[in-house]
From TrEMBL:
Domain FAD-binding PCMH-type: 75-249
Protein name listed in UniProt: Berberine bridge enzyme-like 18
Family classification: Belongs to the oxygen-dependent FAD-linked oxidoreductase family.
Keywords on record: Alkaloid metabolism, Disulfide bond, FAD, Flavoprotein, Glycoprotein, Signal
Signal peptide: 1-25
Organism annotation: Sesamum indicum (Oriental sesame)
Pathway noted in the entry: Alkaloid biosynthesis
One of the Pfam families matching this protein, by short name: FAD_binding_4
SUPFAM superfamilies: FAD-binding/transporter-associated domain-like
GO MF, any single term: FAD binding
Cofactors, names only: FAD
Amino acid sequence: MKTPTISTLIFFLFTVFSCSCAASADGNVHGFLLCLKEEFQNYSSISSLVYTPINSSYQSVLDFSIRNKRFMSDSTPKPLVIITPEYEYQVAPIIYCAKHNQLQIRTRSGGHDFEGLSYVSEVPFVIIDLLNFSEITVDAEQKTAWLGAGATIGMLYYNIAIKSPKLAFPAGFSPTVGVGGHFSGGGWGVLLRKYGLAADNVIDARIVDVNGRILDRKSMGEDLFWAIRGGGGSSFGVILAWKVRLVDVPETVTVFTIYRDLDQNATQLIHRWQYVAPNFDEDLFLRIVARRNVSEGGRMTIRAAFNSVFLGGVDRLLAVMQEKFPELGLVRDDCIEMSWIQSILYNTGFPIDSLEPLLDRYQPDVGYYKGKSDYVQEPMPISGFEGVWRLFYEPEGSEAEFLLTPYGGKMAEIPDNATPFPHRAGYLYKVHHMVFWEAKDAHNAHKYISWIRRLYRYVTPYVTKSPRGAYFNYRDLDIGVNNNEGPISIATARVWGAKYFNKNFNRLVQVKTRVDPKNFFRDEQSIPPRRWWTGKEDI
Ligand SMILES: Cc1cc2nc3c(=O)[nH]c(=O)nc-3n(C[C@H](O)[C@H](O)[C@H](O)COP(=O)(O)OP(=O)(O)OC[C@H]3O[C@@H](n4cnc5c(N)ncnc54)[C@H](O)[C@@H]3O)c2cc1C
Ligand SMILES: *[C@@H]1O[C@H](CO)[C@@H](O)[C@H](O)[C@H]1NC(C)=O
Ligand SMILES: *[C@@H]1O[C@H](CO)[C@@H](O)[C@H](O)[C@H]1NC(C)=O
Ligand SMILES: *[C@@H]1O[C@H](CO)[C@@H](O)[C@H](O)[C@H]1NC(C)=O
Ligand SMILES: *[C@@H]1O[C@H](CO)[C@@H](O)[C@H](O)[C@H]1NC(C)=O
Ligand SMILES: *[C@@H]1O[C@H](CO)[C@@H](O)[C@H](O)[C@H]1NC(C)=O
């Protein structure tokens, strides 16, 4: 055998190296990292924030904010690079370098996206993970707060509570939800009937656009500011921070959770709830979480949890319930008076005597799930609910949930084009369908997913139609997706876009066309721009 000469070796290395360079993804990553080195004069100051698969911590940084185990498998496409910036000025060079190396960006704040869009992509991509943008400043006197996009709602609640027991913010339940995704997609919680969505209470924002400019409300313009309060952030840039208006809550609120099985008239009570809950006093929020359960006699049943936070004391609550919903049979012993922040802990299932758990963004028990959503404008008949229960009795329904959130109150007062979120006046409640499964069933995920699709088909006659409504923050790729590469057809995007945004979809397209005409910020459900070279609405 001939020993290779230096020149054949060099030729060999050159071929391998240049081939791997040309082989898109690897080459792009190489170019991307070189570009970052050029963009940051002092690269050493950020190299510790840049993770590629060779770094031993890459996997743990990736997994840390994954909130759905469905997207934590070996077959889930992985980012080529994860960057966890610490300062605002570090974001623009990342966008610049990604753009110039044909890499897509996924921005992640809290990682709760139901379909994992903040950390999964079918095309070569990098993650900007904002978990370290979590600074919060609360001004209790002005009743405002600035918060980094990577902060969690638990951190926000904590920081408000240590300043004042009478201030709050209308956002969601789970403390680990990130404000970057949550506020840009709407954000609802127990205060929605009194104060609307989180997005309704955003008064300023900071965003990096596709050209690397850092813009605030004034410099971004009212149309972009409108778009990012409900239209999702990922179509428009990287949101850095929000300024929000805090809202008043009484020093004492009252909570209760009471359960009713089918043999305690659960179905009749849920049916009745549709007529009363959207019309209650704004201070009363009463939602329903229905699950399968086993009754005392050992029979399978449906158990509905009636879960409430009332902005006031127990006496007034009992009077309201006695007048408006006596059938539920609420009694004083079911009710607990507590502070607002304790009600957050209570609804999360934490002990109510310590605020510290609100700060913890680590979530130990991440599950496998698929969620979908619907809106209801006309009460469902009893028979409709009975059909839902029959599906819940099937094997895949064992861990499923049927969650009903009442609208009305402030939600009905806000015009449906005030923000991109269109489901306002005339909407009685939102339905959230959820199915969970265990690790041992990971390979059977398709069974659970087809079960929830069957449930979704089953409720079709009872929910909003043309378009069927859906909640953007309960991301569901079943309702339609964009193509991953090439221009995105507006007509195709409208299939899912109208469900989330109804008529507001058109204005979102207009904003997108102005701020990101070449469609750099894109994903399976991002707003497409109108194509500038044809001016055509549809392709
Ligand atoms: C356990 C759990 C509980 C939930 N509870 C509620 C609830 O009570 N009420 C409610 O309304 N919703 C709730 N949700 C849904 C939640 O509001 C959405 O999943 C929301 O998008 C999560 O935001 P995130 O930052 O954690 O998610 P991420 O996965 O980080 O982001 C979600 C989307 O927003 C984009 N995005 C994130 N940050 C930015 C940014 N800074 N700039 C631009 N784009 C960005 C991402 O790219 C992605 O497209 C819950 C979800 C889970 C998993
Ligand atoms: C580069 O950044 C590091 C880390 O922030 C810092 O310690 C160092 O002084 C910087 N060097 C220069 C030349 O700015
Ligand atoms: C990843 O590895 C590179 C190369 O060794 C190093 O420069 C960088 O600092 C590492 N990143 C982290 C987050 O440790
Ligand atoms: C970023 O946040 C993580 C999680 O809170 C923390 O462990 C890490 O030290 C932070 N990194 C920096 C550079 O601040
Ligand atoms: C169920 O409803 C019926 C009539 O509507 C009533 O007679 C009965 O007492 C109720 N049962 C319970 C357990 O509330
Ligand atoms: C049944 O419901 C109760 C709450 O009422 C709950 O503690 C229990 O875990 C449930 N059982 C099942 C099998 O879901």
